[in-house]
Amino acid sequence: MPTLLEDEALQFVRDLIRIETVNTGVAATIGDGETRAASWVRERLAEVGIASELIESRPGRGSLIARIRGSDLHAGALLVHAHLDVVPVEEKDWTHPPFGADIEDGYLYGRGAVDMKNYAGTILAVARHFAREGIVPRRDLVFAFLADEESGGVWGAGWLVENRPELFAGVTEALSEVGGFSVPLVADPDDDRRAYLVATSEKGVAWSTLRARGHAAHGSRPTADNSVVRLARAVAAVGEHRFPVVRTPALQRFLDVFGEARGLAFTDESLADDLESLGFVSSLVGATTRNTATPTVLDAGDKTNIIPAEAAARLDIRILPGQDDALRDGLRELVGDDIDIREGRWWSATEAPVDAPIIDVLQEAISVDDPDGVVVPYLLPASTDNKHFAKLGIHGYGFVPLRVPRDFDVFAQFHAADECIPVDALYFSARVTERILRTA
C-alpha cells in the first residue's frame, strides 16, 4: 500500500492534470488556467498551515511562491520549481483524454504527466508531508509553481526575477526539470543497473533572422542580386553545416561514466558511433555535443512573377556554455557579408558545477531505493526556467527522480500524444524527492 506521501503525490498530479493550463503562446487564447492551478496549490498548502503568495504577472498568468525555513541558518536556500502550464494537444492523436488523468495498466496518462505536473504534484505532497510531520529541512526551501515556462517563462520565472527578486533571497541552487529519470547504464538487457541523469547545464536558446536584400524586378528578367537566391544559399549553408564538437564538463563526465560502464572510447573519431550504441539515450546526449543553428521559417515574395526585394529566414539556435561569440562568428562566416543577421531573443546557456555537494545528496537519496543506481551529469539540449534564475546567480540542476522500465524513454514523453508515466515511478519520485529536500 502506498504511504500518505505517495498517495497524495499521485492524487495531486491527477488533480493538476485535470486543470487545463494550456499555453498556446498567444495571450488572447491562454485563459486563466495557470492562476486557477496556482490557486488550487495555494489551498492545498494552506490546509497544512503553509503560507504562500500568488502573483499574477498579468491576468490569468499566476505563479505561486512559498518558503519553508530550514535548520541551518548559514546554508544557502534551495529553490524547487515546477511550471504549471502545458503545451497544446491534438486530441485526435490521443487514445486517452489528455486532461482526464486516467490510469491504465499501471500508467497515468495526461498532458503534464511528465512535463511537468508530475513534479508540481510531488513537491506539493512533500511540502505537506514536512508540515504534517514537523520535519525541518536542513536548508530553507523556496517552492515555486510557475506560469509560462512553455513559452519561454517571460510571464513566469522571467517576470519574477525581474520584478520580485526578493522572493529568492539567499537562494544558491535550484532543482527542477529535465533529469532524474533512469536510463540503462549497461548494454546487457539482463543487467538492470540504471543511470539517473542530472542536468548540470542547459543549452542556450536564441533566435536570429537572416535577411537578403536586392532589387525588385519582374520574374521574366532575372537579376544578379535576386534576394531569394542569395538567401537560399545562406540557408543551405547553415542547414548543412555541423559545428565542431565541444567537450563541456557535463558532456565529458557523462562520457567518462558511460564509457567505463560500456567499454566505449568516445574518441572524437568514434563519438557518433559510440553515442548511437546507447539507443534512445543517444538522441538526447548527441544533441549536446555541438552548437546548432536550424532554419525553421522562410519569408519572401507572394507573387510568382515578381522577384522580391527582400527575403528572410528565421533560425532556431542552441548554444553550448561559453560559445555565444564563437557561434556568432561561425554563423557570420557561413552566410557571408551580404546577408544581414538580426538577433532576436537570446538566452545564454547555463552551467552549474558537476561536482557540487548537491550531486552527492542526489546520489545518496537514489541509493536508498536503487543501491546500484548511479547519478550521472549531462547537458540538457533544451532549456528550462533555470535560465532565468541563473541571472540571480542561482545554479540550476534538472533532477525529477523517476525509476522507469529499461525501455521507457522519459524524454520522448515531453510534448507527445498519450504522454504518460508509470504510477510506480511517481511513488519512487515522492520518496526520493522527500529525502533530497530534507537533507540537501
Automatic annotation (TrEMBL):
InterPro entries: ArgE/DapE_CS, Bact_exopeptidase_dim_dom, Peptidase_M20, Peptidase_M20_dimer, Peptidase_M20A. Residues 201-327 form the Peptidase M20 dimerisation domain. Its cofactor is Zn(2+). Coiled coil: none annotated. Pfam families: M20_dimer (PF07687), Peptidase_M20 (PF01546). It comes from the Bacteria. Keywords: Hydrolase, Metal-binding, Zinc. It comes from Microbacterium ureisolvens. This is M20/M25/M40 family metallo-hydrolase. Belongs to the peptidase M20A family.
